[in-house]
C-alpha cells in the first residue's frame, strides 16, 4: 500500500519517501513516557520519551515535514480552558465536532475535556504551539481511527496483530525485532497518518476553526492490494 503512495510524488509534494514524518502518542504528563516514532524512506525508528523538550530536540534533529500527534490539540468552540470551572462548560460542552463526526462513523474517541483527558489536552495544545513557533507543520490524528481505515487491528485487540499489520504495509525497522510498547505502536500509526497527509491522501474531519482530525484516505490508486481493503 505505501509503495503505491510513494509513487504519487509530484512537484508539490516532492519525494515523500525522503521526507521525515514524526508521530507522537502523547501522554498527559512528563512523568509518563510518550510514544515517539520517525518514519523516513519506509524505515521507522520508535522510542519512548518523557519531556516536551526532548520531543522538541528530536524534531530539530529530524527536521520533519509534519509532526502528527495523537492528542487533542484544540478546545471545543466557546471553551476557554480545559477545566470544569470554565464559564462555557455548560453551554459548549466537552467535545468538538470532529469527535461527533467520528462517532457517527462508528469510530469512538475520548471527549477532549472529560476529567481524565483535560491534562492531555492542555499538554497537546502547548506542545503543538511550541512546534509551530519553530516552523513545523503539526496535525492532530487518531491512531484508532487510522487503524480502522487501514484495516489494522487496534492495540487493545492485539498488539502483535497490529505490528504484523503495520509490517504488511511495507514498513521496516527494528520494531519488528523488539517488543515495542503499545504507545510506540500508536506513535508509528500517527506517523503513517502524517505520511498520507504529506502525500495529499487524507481526510480532514471537523471544523477548521475548532479543530481537525486527520485520517488517511484510501484512493483507488493507493489500494493496490485488494486484501488490504477494509471489510
Descriptive report:
The protein is of the alpha/beta class and 231 residues long. It has a single domain, classed as Nucleotidyltransferase, domain 5, CATH 3.30.420. Helices cover 34% and strands 18% of the residues. The chain has helices at residues 2-6, 52-62, 89-92, 97-104, 118-133, 143-149, 159-168, 182-198, and strands spanning 21-25, 34-40, 43-49, 66-70, 138-140, 172-173, 202-207, 211-216. It has a 6-stranded mixed sheet with strand order 5-4-1-2-3-6. Strands 7-8 form a two-stranded antiparallel ribbon. Strand 2 and strand 3 (43-49) form a beta hairpin. The radius of gyration is 17 Å and the shape is globular.
User: How many structural domains in the coordinates?
Assistant: 1
Number of strand elements: 8
The CATH architecture assignment turns out to be 2-Layer Sandwich
Q: Mean of residue pLDDT? A: 91
Question: Could you say which structural class the secondary elements and strand pairing correspond to?
Answer: alpha/beta
Q: How are strands sequenced across the largest beta sheet? A: 5-4-1-2-3-6
What name is given to the CATH topology?
Nucleotidyltransferase, domain 5
The secondary-structure element order is: HEEEHEHHHEHHEHEE
- The number of distinct helices, counting runs of at least 4 residues, comes to 8
CATH class: Alpha Beta
Strand portion, in percent? 15-25%
Provide the low-confidence segments as ranges. 221-231
Sum up the overall morphology in one term: globular
